[in-house]
């Protein structure tokens, strides 16, 4: 990951991201998903193949995401905004590595193997990232274009 920022690293430890997709008629859709971040900034998540966002991603793999903690004051607002591509991860070495990463972050999924097996594993690969961090000043933003 060529993004060197302690706040970005801290935010990637949060449990959920909001994934935004585009439907067949151009309608926006947002869904909260648990995710685990790989060292290369790939964000892995599981989802049912029949879910709205999975169906949207089959037609159009471009997506946006937001990761942020709940806060009660504007001075504490911080989060990540991302744009990128989402791809299915086929069973194999990457799938296994992503599963281990995901299960390490969310140990409860080890007891849900049959449910996990009925879902698809996706990788959100961002090509653009924006950090918003009011702790560094009102409206502070820093952006990265990623390879």
Q: Give the integer mean of the pLDDT values.
A: 94
Number of domains: 1
Question: According to CATH, what is the class?
Answer: Mainly Beta
Characterize the overall form: globular
What is the count of DSSP helices, taking H or I runs of 4+ residues? 4
Poorly predicted runs: none
- How far do the termini sit from each other? 10 Å
Order of helices and strands: HEEEEHEEHHEE
Percent strand equals 35-45%
Radius of gyration: 15 Å
- The CATH topology is Pnp Oxidase, Chain A
Fourth CATH level, the homologous superfamily: Electron Transport, Fmn-binding Protein, Chain A
Q: Please identify, by name, the CATH architecture.
A: Roll
Helix and strand content put the structural class at alpha+beta
Percent range of helical residues: 10-25%
- What is the number of beta strands? 8
Structure description:
The protein is an alpha+beta fold and 147 residues long. The protein has one domain (6-145): Electron Transport, Fmn-binding Protein, Chain A (Pnp Oxidase, Chain A). Helix content is 22%, strand content 39%. The chain contains four helices and eight strands. The chain has helices at residues 6-11, 52-59, 93-105, 113-117, and strands spanning 16-22, 28-34, 36-37, 43-47, 62-67, 78-88, 120-133, 141-145. Strands 1, 2, 3, 4, 5, 6, 7 and 8 form an eight-stranded antiparallel beta sheet that branches. The chain is globular and about 45 Å long.
